[in-house]
Amino acid sequence: MLNAKKSAELFAQGSLLIPGAVNSPVRAMKAVGLDPLFVERACGSRIYDADGNEFIDYVGSYGPAILGHSDPRVTAAMAQQSAKGLSFGAPTALEVELARLICCAIEGADKVRLLSSGTEAAMTAIRIARAATGRDKIIKFDGCYHGHSDALLVRAGSGGMTLGVPDSAGVPEALAALTRIADFNSIESVSRYFAAEGSSIAAVIVEPIAANMGVVPPKPGFLPELVKIAHGAGALVICDEVITGFRLRFGAASQILAIAPDLIMLGKIIGGGMPIGAVAGRRELMDLLAPAGPVYQAGTLSGNPISVRAGLETLKLLKEPATYERLEAAGARMEAGMRAALRRSGAIGCVNRAGSLVTMFVGIERVENALDARKADTKKFAAFFRGLIARGIYIAPSQFEAMFISLAHTHDDIDRTIDAIGAALGETAA
Ligand code: PLP
């Protein structure tokens, strides 16, 4: 039995001061019948809570921690940078260096604007697309999450799916009315909108590999066809690579998937664990942004030197040989182990994976979109989650999230995780 006395105390105090005691709803553990564990520190593949419990961590700060936590090379670079000042409100050489690195790594990215979050990246990309096309409507996919701006909080994946609220209160109807919802992996659901109102659609925004309804890879041909239809109607394609950027290869995942989006959103990994977001794209679109052009976007801490330095150091380390082969091997080991554990336990479930992003859906045999994902057995998932936590394995407290494997996870970590999964599944089935 886990000793969570200090976490329970902090939860009680936090509940009086912070809505739900968390500063982002995905950190709550309500959906799995627990109170959140308050974290004290993390190192490599491990995370430690306020009661001193140690877990093998697959949340990885929801994506940024691809090297593992607190890589000493990154923290040393940040310490060195922070001695020079924390934020200047003026451009730095570091920003030019990170922009160059991103533009070299991502085909079709002539320029990049650094922001403070993925949410801002989505807001900015959509504003650029609306300005470039002179159109207002956007298409997004059910279950894809692009941050919490008004127009995009419609059928927005993990957080809402976990809490069972597809849309947010407080979003003006007039704004939500500009957003069309298509089904991931269904080209028909997209072409229907273009046939009906193609001339008023500014952009389609998509996670090229969906990771906020659990991991759902695109079917072959889905994304290329999507780009063809959008471009045929004069609309732009925005690839949200806030999770997938630099996670599956050194650059954008859209390149592996043989598509050339007009705008690419980045975040998470490129800030090495510090707040960041980015929009990249071809020159004429990016130069619509102020002060070069008429599309306004700004940020007191945009391109923050500590974030940029942490990102630069992280990307430098990701460039080392065999990085992505190692992540793929770790992902494949996890997938094979999960499938074997499912077979042995007799539990119904399936495993979706893209490189080091993995989701095991409980109670359902195939997931290709959010409609499928919602059929997962969330009660059984909750029991499965509790079984893992009790065995020292920390995954996101939601069926609709990815497990993020890092370079710090050893084969031994993964094998221990698979053993725990087997045992937790056995209990869940019983
Ligand atoms: N886009 C995707 C695909 C995400 O997963 C997220 C966050 O999880 C965002 C955008 C929003 O990023 P942020 O939380 O930095 O605002």
Structure, described:
The chain is of the alpha/beta class and 430 residues long. It has 15 helices and 14 strands. The protein has helices at residues 5-17, 72-82, 93-105, 118-133, 158-163, 173-176, 187-197, 222-232, 253-256, 283-286, 305-318, 323-345, 370-373, 378-390, 411-429, and strands spanning 39-43, 46-49, 54-57, 111-115, 137-141, 179-182, 201-206, 236-240, 263-267, 277-281, 349-354, 357-362, 393-394, 403-404. The chain has a seven-stranded mixed β-sheet, with helices on both faces. It has a four-stranded mixed β-sheet with strand order 1-2-3-13. A three-stranded antiparallel β-sheet has the order 11-12-14. β2 and β3 form a beta hairpin. α12 (323-345) runs parallel beside α15. The relative contact order is 0.16. The mean pLDDT is 95. The structure holds pyridoxal-5'-phosphate (PLP). Residues 62, 117-119, 122, 145-147, 207, 212, 240, 242-243, 267, 277 line the site of pyridoxal-5'-phosphate.
Summarize the structure in short.
This protein is an alpha/beta fold and 430 residues long. α12 (323-345) packs parallel to α15 (411-429) and α14 crosses α15 (411-429). It is built from 15 helices and 14 strands.
What is the CA-CA span between the terminal residues?
Answer: 19 Å
Are there runs of 5+ residues with pLDDT below 50, and where?
Answer: none
Strand order of the largest sheet: 4-10-9-8-7-5-6
Helix tally equals: 15
Q: What is the radius of gyration computed over CA atoms, rounded to a whole number of angstroms? A: 21 Å
Q: What percentage of the residues does DSSP assign to strands (E)? A: 5-15%
Spatial shape:
globular
Report the bound ligands by name, code or SMILES.
Answer: pyridoxal-5'-phosphate
- What fraction, in percent, of the residue positions are helical? 25-40%
Report the major sheet: 7 strands, mixed
Classify the secondary structure makeup into a structural class.
Answer: alpha/beta
Tell me the number of strands. Answer: 14
Mean pLDDT: 95
Order of helices and strands: HEEEHHEHEHHEHEHEHEEHHHEEHHEEH
